[in-house]
Q: What sequence folds into this?
């Protein structure tokens, strides 16, 4: 069923003289199986929007239906948050328990699952994020590397077996190698979590991974596009205070050299250039 958002608006401090309109009349649909990107400059409303999706912010105006849960009516918060897993920016800061095993098991324990099922989910989730369960289960979350901490925090969300995974700037603060590893991991998780929503300022990451992209500016939705549609409507991105991805800039430069290319990511670009030059892939 996915997510259906209709005429959603949100105002912070609505009765105060310094009220702030964070979202204005947002309508969009996120379908099952989407890898959905959300982009926009700081203050565009991205975080406010995704915070509605697992009940962190209540609906003021408009409506949201997540799968079979209508967020404008009374609903079970635990059921919603088991269905919609959210990984915040710098998720390693969310770690708090004495061991990795206990930390990853926090969500399943909160779901009142039996211990056998909790143990099973914890072991599976730790393995899914590429960590060695036996080696890391009894270690403190604060005695492992930054990259391992981020994976452990992600495992804590995956242990709840969400149907929808929301990632807020998942590569923030990582070096290029770490960014590549996390994005590769996220893509491998699609077999477990079919619908992924990702916020990122990194346009290369958005264009390379997402099949649909929502552009927000000053609380308004400028539209939902495929990567190729945004390539043809680059002014929508630049008007929102963002830069087009590096592949787009390379294609622009190559166009002046007589190359007509329509790649939307690095892999497609290399393939098309090699084909133009008659080099076998």
A:
């Amino acid at each position: 069923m996915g997510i259906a958002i209709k005429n959603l608006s949100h105002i912070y401090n609505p009765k105060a003289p310094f009220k702030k309109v964070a979202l204005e009349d947002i309508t969009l649909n996120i379908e099952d199986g989407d890898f959905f990107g959300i982009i926009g400059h700081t203050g565009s409303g991205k975080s406010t929007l995704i915070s509605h999706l697992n009940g962190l912010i209540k609906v003021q105006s408009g409506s949201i239906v997540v799968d079979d849960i209508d967020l404008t009516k009374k609903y079970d918060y635990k059921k919603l948050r088991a269905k919609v897993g959210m990984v915040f920016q710098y998720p390693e800061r969310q770690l708090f328990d004495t061991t990795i095993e206990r930390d990853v098991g926090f969500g399943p324990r909160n779901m009142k699952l039996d211990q056998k099922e909790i143990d099973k989910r914890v072991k599976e989730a730790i393995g899914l994020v590429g960590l060695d369960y036996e080696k890391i289960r009894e270690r403190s979350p604060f005695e492992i590397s930054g990259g391992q901490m981020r994976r452990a925090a992600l495992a804590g969300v995956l242990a709840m077996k969400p149907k929808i995974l929301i990632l807020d700037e998942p590569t923030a603060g990582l070096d290029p190698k770490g960014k590549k590893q996390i994005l590769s991991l996220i893509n491998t998780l699609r077999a477990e979590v079919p619908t992924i929503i990702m916020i990122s300022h990194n346009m290369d990451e958005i264009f390379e991974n997402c099949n649909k992209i929502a552009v927000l500016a000053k609380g308004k939705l400028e539209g939902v596009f495929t990567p190729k549609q945004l390539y043809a409507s680059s002014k929508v991105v630049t008007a929102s205070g963002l830069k087009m991805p590096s592949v787009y800039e390379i294609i622009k430069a190559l166009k002046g050299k007589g190359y007509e290319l329509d790649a939307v990511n690095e892999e497609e670009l290399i393939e098309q250039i090699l084909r133009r030059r008659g080099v076998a892939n």
